Amino acid sequence: MKLFTKYNRINLYVMALVFCISGLIYYLIISGVLIQELDEALLRYKNRTEVFIKANQVIPEFNDFEEIQVSALKVTHASDKSIKTVRMYDTDEQVTEDFRQLSFTVKLNAQFYLLTVSKPIEGTKLLINVIAITTIVLLLVVILSSFLVNQSILKKLWRPFYLTLNELNGFKLDSHSLPKLPETEIDEFSLMNKSVYELIQSADNDYRALKEFTENASHELQTPLAIIRAKLDLIIQEENLSDGNSSALKIIYSSVQRLTKLNRSLLLLAKIDNGQFNATERIDMKERLLEKVEQFHELWTAKKLVNSLDISASFLKGNSELIDILLNNLLSNASSHNVSGGALYISLLNNRLIVSNSGSEVALDRTRLFSRFYKENLHSQHNGLGLSIIKQICDRSGITIQYNHLGVTHSFMLSWE
Which stretches does DSSP call E strand in 250-296? Predict the structure, then answer.
């Protein structure tokens, strides 16, 4: 979840909670204030009645007015004043509804009278509802407006951050150009961009230095390795070598061969990283694959591999030399990691190439499969660069590669547009 989305969600929850609580509190306050005003009106009516009785020594004749209902009842003793809400029949509206009722006693000529003054609450309730609804609607409009404005402002403020992320997502160390980070007036983002740019620049310099070292070292190793291999050829051909010396020389020769192969692979990876295979053309994959099948035929026969071919017309736009290396490594990998008398399946159909071979029941480590120097068996005679070269060429050529394992069958599927 994005930080912006997370903030908006929390902000919305908080605003909704504040809205509900504040709306309820406001309704209770308004209701209490208006009920208090109603009670004060009833008390004023009580005071006027008491003044009238004291002045005239008679109970006034009550007529219902201003929605107030008044009644007088003789009682035997005085009682305390009380105000409460009761349900009564409204003679004007001819309905039963809530009234606010004030009860008090007065004494006239040694006789106590219980006077009740009642006023309907419905009008007050209607006023409460109108005020509360109006205020809550206005409050809701303010909250929503604040939320939308806040969202718009935050989106604008965070725009440099997302622009930086987009630049970093598309950046690769072998792209030969540094990302262009946006300029911003926000100090925190400006400091972040500066730190990120310096870090990328440092990593890019180290990467270029490492590539240059690898390429130079591989070039420098070619000549002495060629000389060593030539001298070993001459020594091995001598007739007076003892069996022990001959065996030792063969081991040395084999090691030099492995070292030579490793050097060639590292040099190839360095050339691919440096973009030395930029020329592209339309390649007939069917024709190219059939050529490779013919080249590998003797090897497959020697290992008694049962091969199955399903090859149809397909074309790919890429570098001819890289595609040739790709097919060589792919078929060589399927051959060398196969078992004697095993199966080999090659399918080329609808811009998709599948190469499958029988092998171990244990799947390869998908997390390190295409890493350099990865070996399924630590004691393997292979240098562990074959699959890394395949992945590098696929990335350069716009080819997607996937590895699958089922039972004892290991498959690599290459697809392109």
Answer: 281-284
Q: What are the tens digits of pLDDT across the range 223-246?
A: 777 777 787 777 777 767 777 777
**Please, which contacts does 105-111 make with residues 24 or more away whose CB atoms are closer than 8 Å?**
105/75, 105/78, 105/79, 106/49, 106/50, 106/53, 106/59, 107/78, 108/53, 108/57, 108/58, 108/59, 109/57, 111/74
The fold of the 189-273 domain, in CATH, is Helix Hairpins (1.10.287)
Given this chain, do its domains 189-273 and 281-415 carry the same CATH topology?
A: no
The DSSP code for 66 is T
Name the superfamily (CATH) of residues 281-415: Histidine kinase-like ATPase, C-terminal domain (3.30.565.10)
Tokens of 156: 């604008």
**Residue 329 parent element (H or E):** helix 320-336
Domain ranges of the chain: 3-153, 189-273, 281-415
Cβ of 98: how many Cβ atoms within 10 Å?
15
Name the pTM for this structure. 0.48
Asked whether 292 and 309 are in contact (CB, 8 A), the reply is: no
Q: What is the DSSP string of 144-185?
A: HHHHHHHHHHHHHHTHHHHHHHHHHHT--GGGSS---PPP-S
For the chain, what's the residue count? 417
Structural contact between residues 350 and 416, judged by C-beta atoms closer than 8 angstroms: no
Q: Give the C-alpha separation, 129 to 121, whole Å.
A: 12
Distance of alpha carbon 275 from alpha carbon 61, whole angstroms = 111
Residue 409, phi then psi, degrees to nearest 5: -100, 125
| Residue 134 structure tokens | 């109006």
Report the candidate in 324, 322, 330 with the shortest Cα–Cα distance to residue 386.
Answer: 330
Residues of the chain with pLDDT under 70: 1-4, 62-66, 90-93, 123-125, 174-176, 214-220, 239, 274-275, 374-384
For 412, other C-beta atoms within 10 Å of its C-beta total 20
CB atoms within 10 A of CB 77: 7
